[in-house]
Design a protein that fits this description.
The chain is an all-beta fold. It has one domain (3-177): Immunoglobulin-like (Sandwich). The protein contains no helices and 13 strands. The protein has strands at 3-9, 11-12, 21-30, 36-44, 68-74, 80-85, 91-96, 104-105, 112-117, 121-128, 140-148, 154-158, 176-177. The strands form two sheets. Strands 2, 5, 6, 7, 8, 11, 12 and 13 form an eight-stranded antiparallel β-sheet that branches. A five-stranded antiparallel β-sheet has the order 1-3-4-10-9, with no helix packed on it. A hairpin with a 5-residue loop joins β11 (140-148) and β12. The chain is globular and about 40 Å long. The relative contact order is 0.24.
């Protein structure tokens, strides 16, 4: 039986207001197979957003330059992993040894994505297999999003923001701690 590991609102960075959305949240569901369904829900006017066109689910750099949803997973020491998922179904995954240093591609299976755009809601679900989770699921994680409006303005959403400019790599953004997962 699947269970909700986390369900949290994201906060828009105060220096990057977003006229198109009134709320953005995320839910992480632990499936029976120990994979995750990560669901991002944006409420407002999806027609006012730049949403990348559907494309092949391939590894692609620089997804954060437009509407993109992200997970940051704490690893041992200062290391962490970053997973980016685009509404287009493109994705990227990176390993960092320390804060913004030692970046390299992280070998992961491609997440399956599903995009639903309704009148007042955009829902992106990224399904990650257990093999796509580069940690033991007992640490801290950050959940964030970059939202681009039709006029090109970017807003930055996260569980929490450090002082200063938006910076999802900062450990202040790793504001969700998940419970240990019981295994049979």
């Amino acid at each position: 039986m699947s269970s909700i590991l986390a369900e949290r609102p994201l906060v828009c960075h105060p220096d990057t207001p977003c006229d198109a959305l009134v709320a953005l949240g995320a839910r992480i569901i632990l499936r029976d197979d120990h994979g995750w369904d990560v669901e991002f829900v944006a409420v407002g006017d999806p027609a006012a957003l730049r949403i990348p066109s559907p494309a092949e689910a391939i590894r692609t750099d620089d997804l954060w330059r437009t509407t993109c949803f992200e997970l940051f997973l704490a690893l041992d020491g200062d290391a962490y992993a970053e997973l980016n998922v685009s509404p287009s179904s493109a994705w990227a995954a990176y390993h960092f040894d320390h804060y913004r240093t030692g970046m390299r591609e992280l070998a992961l299976p491609s997440p399956r994505t599903q995009l639903l755009v309704q009148h007042e809601r955009l829902v992106l679900t990224a399904s990650l297999s257990e093999d796509a989770l580069p940690w033991d699921r007992t640490g801290e994680l950050g959940i964030s999003a970059v939202i681009e409006e039709q006029d090109g303005r970017l807003s930055y959403w996260a569980l929490a923001h450090p002082p200063g400019k938006p910076d999802f790599h900062h450990r202040d953004c790793f504001a969700q701690r998940l419970p240990p997962v019981e295994r049979a």
